[in-house]
Amino acid sequence: MSSGLYKFLLLLIGAVACLWLALPDFAVVDEQFHLEQIKRLANGDPTHLPNITTFIYLHQLYAWLGQWLPISDLLDYRLISAMFAGLWVLLLIRVVSAGNILFDWKLAGQLLFLPVIFPYLPLVYTDLPALSCLLLCAWLMYQKRFITGALTGALATWVRQPSLIWLGLLTLWAGYRCYTQQTDAFRAVKVMLPGVVVMLLFAGFFVFNDSVALGDKSHHRVSLNLTNGYFMLLMAAVIFMPLVVRQSNETWRLFITSRWLWLVFLAGMPLYLNTFEVSHPFNGTQLNMFLRNLTLNTLVTHWGWLLISYVLLFFCTLALISCPMRRPEFRALWLALPMSVVMMPLVEQRYYMMGFVLWLLCRQRFTDTVEGVLLLWMALISTSLYWGISQRWFYF
User: Fold this and answer.
1) How far apart are CA 115 and CA 316, in angstroms?
2) What does the alpha-carbon distance between residue 327 and residue 362 come to, in Å, rounded to a whole number?
3) Within a 10 A sphere around the Cβ of 301, how many other Cβ atoms?
4) SS3 state of residue 200
5) Cβ atoms of residues 88 and 131 within 8 Å
6) In the beta sheet, which residues pair with residue 290?
7) In contact, 36 and 48? CB cutoff 8 Å
8) Cα 175 vs. chain centroid, distance in angstroms?
9) Which of 37, 53, 31 is nearest to 128 (CA)?
């Protein structure tokens, strides 16, 4: 076992201790709906509750495992979530180890403490199982195992429908990589075929269902929402701030020497100010106990803060884009990131999980000091969020 793996295991022990000691003694937000659905299934009632907008195959698995363990207290279903979290950690170790002589424990730690993931690790949510399937899908497609990758993407979509967007993007990415490497359009189409078939089958179901959502469809209609893209970039600016600082001098030099960037900056400002809006009822001011809603509603009601946020978003995004990638084709991820969220009517940080994970994996590494500071920064944010949620101070 390498020293890097030992260091990551020590980091993992600390993370588990934090998650255990501050574990909320109440059902956190949507967790109450998932637990109620699981309880009904465990009692033999197959009714699909309206608050559950995903397929309930995962809930059926929870119910079956709960009977096998057996589980009596609803919150004890978090033991099953802990099993999924364990599988997530094993997958992280496998992906980070692939092709590397030395295990990059700082990268694995950054993925573990990614703030859009860490607070949900022990909770009964659908996001982590879906994310695990998506990461496995990405890894399989990168390994040119396109059929199994597409099937894993289908499994992710069965768990959580928005996964279909990432399956589509990963399929296009695989075809793009194939074409740039072999300049063979027929081969590229063949590579994409398994993913396209899966997407067409799900698309047919969604057309038949008249929505991508099950249960309550009224709040989950597909629509253009640029604010989701803006908020994702603002969150990236905060989460990856040490990298922004690392790239700040280079970014500022680029900004003052490239006149076209000034044109982009000035042209984007009215677009941002006029299209930044809070339209979904779940993002309303009545739910400002959620940090994302508080942020959104503060920005949208104070044009000064909105203008400051635009400057921050523009500069920080430019800094992050300037971070070198492991391969040239990985830069296409900066097109995939906004595409993955702008069709979502609800502004929700959980939609950003897969994009942030892929970006961390695809970028080149900086010095040990920079990577260590980034790990410490992300761990501080994640543990603070988790502690605040457990104390009912706010929700994420």
Assistant:
1) 18
2) 8
3) 11
4) helix
5) yes
6) 395
7) no
8) 23
9) 31
